[in-house]
Specification:
This protein has 280 residues and is mainly alpha-helical. It is built from 15 helices and 4 strands. 38% of the residues are buried.
């Protein structure tokens, strides 16, 4: 393959097509999203990859694709198409596997989005090209290594290990995987960019260890979070809404079990029918 950015363009196009179909067809969205129960119980392992091409809204899609555009062409042209592809899909898979490990007991945990893969591309680029600058709104440029460290801290703050929220664990897993795969292809960068790599990998590894072994230490349940929950990122809102739907469905099923289906009101019957269609 050549190094002209062809794979980057294909991935961008695939994200658009897959996301658009998910917006238009809820059944398609549910069929390919990342769901703990569907992966562990029904062994639908394809969801570990397909969920990375779905998004919950156009704003979610645009944010991820703009982030990808800022790094993908530089990385693909520098390392090659096959190497870039390995970084992208390796980061996506690793991020979701980490989420699978952390939330294996949360049967209603679900997520979508290319964030894990994109974080892998970002950290791989920072590791190979530490001198790059990240432009914010075309006005302010910050060093790539500082962006990486800031990203780790923001991700850790966003982590919440309860089933009603999506943490950024997949982001951390994808970021670390992307960097390690890039260094496998370019081992000389380890010594050339040792300080940068160390600065972003140590906190990343530390917090991954914490969320696996002592997740209760990272629960975000402070006053600011409770007051500003409606302003949480798209991933948080999506999973919060999904968990609420699951709770409502459980209440409806319990009512049917104890009082019979005729006890449901017209609105409750409509909600039950809606949930049934979404799961099919």
């Amino acid at each position: 393959m050549n190094h002209t950015g062809t794979i980057s363009l294909i991935i961008l196009l695939a994200n658009f097509i897959f996301s658009y179909k998910g917006f238009a067809n809820r059944a398609f969205f549910e069929r390919y999203s990342f769901e703990i129960e569907r992966v562990l119980v029904f062994r639908e392992y394809r969801r570990l990859i397909t969920s990375g091409f779905l998004h919950v809204s156009w704003s979610h899609f645009l944010f991820n694709m703009i982030s990808l555009l800022a790094f993908c062409f530089l990385l693909e042209k520098g390392l090659g198409s096959i190497q870039f592809c390995s970084i992208y899909f390796g980061s996506l898979l690793t991020g979701n596997l980490l989420s699978l490990l952390i939330h294996r007991h949360d049967s209603d945990y679900s997520s979508v989005g290319a964030s894990g893969a994109i974080c892998g591309v970002i950290f791989a680029t920072i590791a190979i090209y530490p001198g790059i600058s990240i432009s914010i709104m075309g006005l302010l440029a910050i060093p790539g290594w500082l962006y990486g460290l800031f990203f780790v801290l923001i991700s850790v703050y966003g982590i919440k290990s309860r089933q009603d929220n999506i943490g950024h664990d997949a982001h951390l897993g994808g970021a670390l995987a992307g960097m390690l795969i890039a260094l496998f292809f370019e081992p000389h960068a380890i010594w050339q960019n040792f300080t940068t790599i160390l600065a972003i990998s140590i906190p990343c590894l530390f917090f991954i260890y914490i969320i696996i072994t002592r997740p209760y230490l990272l629960l975000v349940d402070n006053l600011f979070y409770r007051k500003h929950h409606n302003f949480a990122n798209i991933d948080h809102r999506y999973n919060f809404e999904r968990a609420n739907k699951q709770k409502e469905l459980d209440m409806l099923l319990e009512k049917i079990h104890t009082k019979g289906i005729n006890s449901l009101s017209k609105a409750e019957r409509e909600r039950l029918e809606q949930y049934s269609q979404e799961m099919n």
